[in-house]
Amino acid sequence: MAALDQKSPNVLLQSLCCKITGKSEADVAHQFQYAVRVIGSNYAPTIERDEFLVSEKIKKELLKQRREADAALFSELHRKLQTQGVLKHRWSILYLLLSLCEDPKKPSSRVPVCCYGSLFAQALPRDVHSTPFYYARPQSLPLSYPERSAAAHNSSMATSGISSMGVFSINGPGPTPPSLLTGPGTQAVGESMRGSRLAWTVPVSGSPSGAAAAPRPPGGPSASPAPKAPNRPRRDGDGSAEIGEAALVRDLLYVFQGIDGKFIKMSSPENSYKIDPKVPLCKSLRDTSSRLAELGWLHNKIRKYTDSHSLDRAFGLVGQSFCAALHQELKEYYRLLSVLHAQIQVEDDQGVNDGMESSLTLRRLLVWTYDPKVRLKTLAALVDYCQGRKGGELASAVHAYGKTGDPHMRALIQHILGLVSHPILNFLYRWIYDGELEDTYHEFFVASDPTVKTDRLWHDKYSLRKSMIPSFITMDKARKVLLIGKSINFLHQVCHDRTPPGKIMPSSKSSDSPKDATELFTDLEGAFQSKIDAAYFETSKYLLDVLNKNYQLLEHLQAMRRYLLLGQGDFIRHLMDLLKPELVRAATTLYQHNLTGILETAVRATNAQFDSPEILKRLDVRLLEVSPGDTGWDVFSLDYHVDGPIATVFTRECMSHYLRVFNFLWRAKRMEYILTDIWKGQMCNAKLLKSMPELSGVLHQCHVLASEMVHFIHQMQYYITFEVRVSISPEDIECGISCVA
């Protein structure tokens, strides 16, 4: 049991007091009581646990010592430390480093070893943790030092310090030991502890020594009166006295966050923060406070927009990025407010320059909040401008708002644009490099219609959503972007080409960060244009190569030229000779299988037989709609069947044009064929009719008329073939495709 008592906290604490003071147990009763009450108190820490503030202080210390390189190195190391989860108490380590870097030549607030006796003379009021007055003040905004001193003096409170020794003892109040009232160490400790939480005056009921507990000026006589703290203006706003500037500053720090203060509140009818007209306040302070309160209104406007859209999924990724950018700016704004709160907290903890006025005034607030106010004004105006917009339209609004001559505001808008356009850039990269369109909320300027079938994929499935085209992307670039992704999907779904996209285009596939998006969009005529052009060139070239090699696009074009545009002369002439007996009959008596057999005979008898079987099997006969009185010449037509990827190139509309041109050329060729037969008949009958001179004039007129008709037909065919370019040479077709590729 004795061993247990020796290890109890009280025994160990008493031994510690004896060790520090070098006195016996009987002589350290007051010090032991003080130590017990310190351990049992619930004082909050006097230091703001803000890792950012501590790191900034360390960097400022390094800069004061002209160690810019070390400051930069520290900033980089601190940034790396934040990304790792090795340390859980980074603030404590940084504060330790800050404490270790203090100049030892400066006057220290630590208590020297020789003055431990005086330290223990700093008596604490009893039961401070149960005193109701302690929680009467908000912990975040405590009273400043002069107010505490004045309150302690006027209400006869007990104070900590040398002069309060003897107020409390184990058995109650007692006389102050004279040995603890003298010596230079006592004065040093009294000065060093001023402003700390241990030096706060706390009201104690029933203390008979309140008047005698006021601190004495160091070095002065014992009978000299205690210095009177300066009286600050009343804070209660009860009409008996004008409220002070410090109270307005505290109110404004809450208003800056959109929280109603004690004197400044939101007026719903006027939609602005107003100072209570019943509060006694001079006009200058009222006007300055109203100007500062505008920050709270701007904050509320931005915060209302972000709160209403952050959880709205229909707002899309671009809208969420915009809200994230606004949150980021508000976070920087909150960081400034935390610094201002910490400034007031430090002044309250340490005393405002030993009784002087606070360094945080309304005019200084005006200066310190000037830049944040300009930024919030820009953001609030941007929020108004972007109301009801989403996707690419929202990005266009942000981009348009960045056209300003103010470099700082332009940098702010460009930063926001980088965040907003990052999802659009991801959409764009996924589209032009993979052909994938993951646009759940319809934000991208390329739209897809899932109801369209594969055979109409190229023409109808994908289109431009013009309202969503960002203003920094031209219509020409948007069309190229559409064609790039459309080509990739055409290769995959129609041509069944399984080549990985990386082999088609070896370019970068995505942006790593919003910064990349900003840098890319700021160089729209350079890097961005080159990326789009390179992807467009590579994709188009690969698509044409696949169509030419796997689906003989060039051969099909030449086949249509030879057969539908009558480029294969021997075949067309022989076909007419074979069809003449059939086509002179009525159209209703024709049978397609008979005409198909004649077509195959004409192919085998001419150079057409050397064409590819893939080409010849697509050549067929087609009978047009029959009208009363039509002959076979009126309804006969050649046809060319297309399917698969080739059908995408030669659409129904395209084939309809080909058939119309064929019918026109076929009729012209028939007229030439008839005129040729007439000329042959005239040549055969010329010798027989020489014996009839009375017919020479008529025959001459017939020869002239036939020659004019032949000349007209030849000129028309020449015009159609070479001027209109209906029949293009194979070399021209090949050259055109290679140029496109």
Automatic annotation (TrEMBL):
> A GO BP term, please?
cytoplasmic microtubule organization
Q: Which domain of life is it from?
A: Eukaryota
Task: Cite the Gamma tubulin complex component protein N-terminal domain residue spans from the record.
Answer: 249-549
Q: Which residues cross the membrane?
A: none
GO molecular-function terms, A-Z: gamma-tubulin binding; microtubule minus-end binding
Could you state one GO cellular component term attached to this entry?
Answer: spindle pole
Cross-referenced Pfam families: GCP_C_terminal (PF04130), GCP_N_terminal (PF17681)
Regions of biased composition (Low complexity) lie at 205-214
| Compartments where located | Cytoplasm, Cytoskeleton, Microtubule organizing center, Centrosome
Using the record's annotation, list all stretches that form the Gamma tubulin complex component C-terminal domain. 553-724
User: Which residue stretches belong to region Disordered?
Assistant: 204-240
Q: Which family does it belong to?
A: Belongs to the TUBGCP family.
Q: What protein name does the entry list?
A: Gamma-tubulin complex component 3
- Name the species this protein comes from: Triplophysa rosa
Write the lineage as a comma-separated list.
Eukaryota, Metazoa, Chordata, Craniata, Vertebrata
